[in-house]
Specification:
About 4% of the residues have low confidence. The radius of gyration is 21 Å and the shape is globular. The two termini are 41 Å apart. Helices cover 47% and strands 12% of the residues. It is an alpha/beta fold. The longest helix is centred in the N-terminal third of the chain and has 42 residues. It folds into two domains: 138 residues, no CATH class; 229 residues, Vaccinia Virus protein VP39 (Rossmann fold). Strands 1-4-3-2-5-6-8-7 form an eight-stranded mixed β-sheet, sandwiched between helices.
Length: 403
């Protein structure tokens, strides 16, 4: 599917000039060229050249993604692909930062005003220790990472993430960058038999793009988004206010929040697990179990485990670990998350992996008018057949229910 969505404007989204916007659109198109023009060539290169060279050298065929990598890194085609991918990633952040640097004082003032007028709470403790696994690396090459700050009441990395994620995903996260949240909302509507949570928590919410659909789907619910990065939380609070939604945001660590036991009926996360450490992940599962009321659901939307795919696909996806500052990407995909959920106290029969169909693909298939939770009502009620949409099709979700 050729993406034609443009990102929807809101009061604190950075506003590029004509030239800045052209550069940003170039980076999005460059990434699409890499995905559609260069990536498909890796399979034939491996089969025709790299695998045979590996077998001559080692006397056996490549057995796993590590063998495939050792064969491919020597090939000029793969080197060209990997370099182009890294350059595109750095370009998208750089082209966006030019706009943010020019507008930052104005953006900060707008965020302050929006937050002051918001009905939703903003909880930023005076003393908060951001985990080292977040601060020690510029995750996915984003300058400053999630938590970098350059000014009082800073929102710069939040603004960078909001615009940058749209470019990184080539628009496939939807015009509000909220496809994961909308997709999980549709899954809840479709599959959880009339489940109507009264309190909802989104862990690792960044700028709240995936948080807001839950307030749309469950307007009477109290919705919270938490993140360890203050610039993300400030931006998320102002962004929600600018979009007219009453959602609460707080700077908290998903490993140990400040909420009381049994506070929530639904706890979700969206691409949190592959950006947290191996030591933190079991603590997050334990915290989810503590925070859930009896009968409440934990749903983590992320990337499928490696054991569900062939070694070459594993190799392709693991390039993020090697070339995009995603140190936990591969390790997360090898972690037994079902075992972690069991150890946290969730009943084994309640734990499963499933697929939440991508909302944006469903909208295209249905030729839906508009991209909103209201417009998705008919879509979320119908039956879904796997493989019906392309590319991709769905988000992997780990689901568990507290006894």
């Amino acid at each position: 599917m050729l993406n034609t969505f443009q990102q929807v404007d809101h009061p604190i989204l950075p506003k590029p000039t004509h030239d800045e916007g052209s550069r940003q659109e170039f980076t999005k198109s460059f990434k699409q060229f890499i995905q559609q023009g260069l990536l498909p060539g890796l399979g034939p290169v491996f089969g025709v050249r790299a695998a045979k060279a590996f077998e001559r050298e080692h006397g056996r065929a490549p057995a796993d993604r590590r063998d495939i990598r050792s064969a491919m890194v020597k090939d000029l085609y793969f080197q060209h692909y990997a370099a182009a991918n890294r350059i595109a990633q750095e370009l998208l952040w750089e082209s966006t930062n030019v706009t943010i640097d020019r507008e930052l004082p104005e953006l900060i003032e707008k965020a302050r005003g929006l937050s002051a007028s918001a009905k939703g709470q903003l909880d930023l403790p005076e003393e908060f220790e951001t985990p080292r696994y977040v601060t020690s690396i510029d995750i996915h090459c984003m300058p400053g990472g999630y938590a970098g700050a350059v000014a009082p009441d800073d929102i710069s990395t939040g603004a960078l993430y909001d615009r940058g994620v749209y470019l990184y995903a080539m628009g496939y996260m939807g015009p509000f960058n909220d496809d994961m949240g909308r997709s999980v909302c549709n899954y809840v509507n479709r599959r959880l038999d009339g489940f109507k949570p009264k309190r909802i928590l989104d862990l690792g919410c960044t700028v709240g793009h995936s948080t807001l659909p839950y307030k749309e789907l469950f307007p009477e619910a109290e919705v919270w988004g938490v993140d360890v990065a203050a610039p993300q939380v400030r931006y998320a609070h102002a962004r929600a206010a600018g979009l007219g939604l009453e959602v609460n945001f707080a700077q908290m660590n998903a490993e140990e929040t400040r909420f009381e036991d049994g506070s929530f009926d639904l706890i979700v996360s969206h691409i949190l697990l592959h950006e947290t450490s191996g030591k933190a992940m079991p603590r997050i599962f334990n915290e989810c179990h503590r925070l859930l009321a009896p009968g409440g659901y934990m749903i983590h939307a992320d990337l499928p485990p490696f054991d569900n795919m062939d070694p070459f696909t594993q190799f392709i996806l693991d390039n993020e670990t090697w070339y995009n500052n995603e140190p936990f990407w591969g390790a997360m995909r090898e972690t037994d998350q079902v075992a972690l959920a069991k150890a946290a106290g969730f009943p084994p029969e309640s734990i499963k992996f499933d697929t939440a169909p991508m909302a944006i693909m469903e909208f295209v298939a249905q030729q839906a008018a508009g991209y909103s939770q209201d417009a998705s009502a008919a879509v979320s009620d119908r039956e879904f057949a796997a493989g019906e949409y392309a590319p991709g099709g769905g988000w992997e979700v780990l689901i568990a229910r507290k006894a």
